[in-house]
Q: What sequence folds into this?
């Protein structure tokens, strides 16, 4: 509060003797800047005195500001812009700077990550003549490399002599993916093209080694099967002896696994179908001497087969015979 003092009273009078006491005012407020401001007295009334006013002064001096800036949590490349979190005792504006623009810059007052690595972020109170000191605090910012993944869908069955485009295989980072073949004699890689050289199967590995901002991706492996356009890689073994010795215990059809859309029909010498099945695979779907239609164990003798496969949407068939025996 502003205080008014008086002089010139007579006959024992005092401030309390005035009809109306004087008041004082100033243009300064609690948020005014450092400086000198006038104090203006006015309003005193009394019939016994001629009142003269003398202005006073109010001086606002500079203060000591405080700045708080906690340690910055570790970030990852690709994280969104964030506020440094520094605060001041009076809520004043804070200016941030980064010592390494390759790791972080300041955009519209926020910290913007530009790469993996380490930088020093300094928080400073904006220039202000109302404070005796301009505080500044520095903190280390560590930005880790980002993880990345490879999207590599299953490779369709390939025809011998064909080429398969691998350029659609991508990494989440946008970095280029490289490929390798476990058996270049069956399938080789030229850039992003897979060449189907020989009948058989192998594995194709997709890799991305990472860079300054991304960790290496976990490699993804996909099998590739190469078949003959004419289905000539199908070979039906002509002997079946399901006696439990582990040799020819079921009708083995080489190459059938390369044609999952298949149908196998077996006929006895009387023209009766004793086995008819789809997706023959030499493992769970096989002929082991029993009819899959009646469950009956078939007699030893000669049987005839018809193997149908689908190649490029076209059905192809192969016929022949085999001998069933139990000794």
A:
């Amino acid at each position: 509060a502003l205080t008014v003092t008086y002089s010139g009273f007579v006959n024992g009078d005092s401030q309390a003797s005035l009809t109306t006491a004087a008041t004082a005012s100033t243009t300064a407020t609690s948020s005014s800047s450092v400086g000198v401001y006038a104090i203006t007295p006015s309003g005193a009334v009394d019939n016994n005195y001629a009142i003269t006013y003398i202005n006073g002064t109010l001086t606002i001096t500079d203060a000591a500001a405080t700045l708080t800036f906690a340690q910055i949590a570790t970030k990852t490349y690709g994280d969104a812009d964030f506020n440094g979190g520094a605060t001041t005792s009076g809520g004043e504006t804070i200016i941030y700077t980064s010592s390494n623009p390759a790791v972080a810059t300041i955009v519209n007052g926020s910290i913007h990550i530009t790469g993996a690595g380490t930088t020093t972020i300094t928080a400073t109170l904006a220039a202000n003549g109302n404070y005796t000191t301009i505080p500044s605090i520095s903190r280390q910012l560590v930005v880790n490399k980002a993880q990345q993944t490879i999207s590599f869908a299953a490779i369709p069955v390939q025809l011998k002599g064909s080429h398969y485009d691998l350029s659609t295989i991508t990494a989440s980072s946008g970095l280029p993916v490289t490929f390798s073949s476990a058996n270049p004699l069956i399938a080789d890689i030229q850039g992003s093209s897979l060449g189907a050289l020989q009948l058989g199967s192998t594995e194709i590995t997709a890799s991305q080694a990472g860079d300054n901002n991304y960790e290496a991706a976990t490699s993804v492996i996909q099998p590739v099967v190469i078949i003959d356009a004419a289905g000539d890689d199908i070979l039906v073994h002509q002997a079946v002896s399901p006696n439990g010795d582990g040799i020819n215990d079921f009708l083995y059809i080489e190459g059938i696994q390369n044609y999952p859309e298949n149908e196998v029909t077996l006929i006895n010498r009387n023209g009766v179908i004793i086995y008819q099945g789809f997706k023959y695979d030499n493992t769970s779907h096989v002929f082991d001497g029993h009819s899959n239609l009646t469950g009956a164990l078939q007699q030893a003798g000669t049987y005839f087969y018809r193997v149908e496969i689908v190649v490029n949407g076209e059905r192809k068939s192969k016929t022949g015979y085999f001998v069933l025996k139990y000794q």
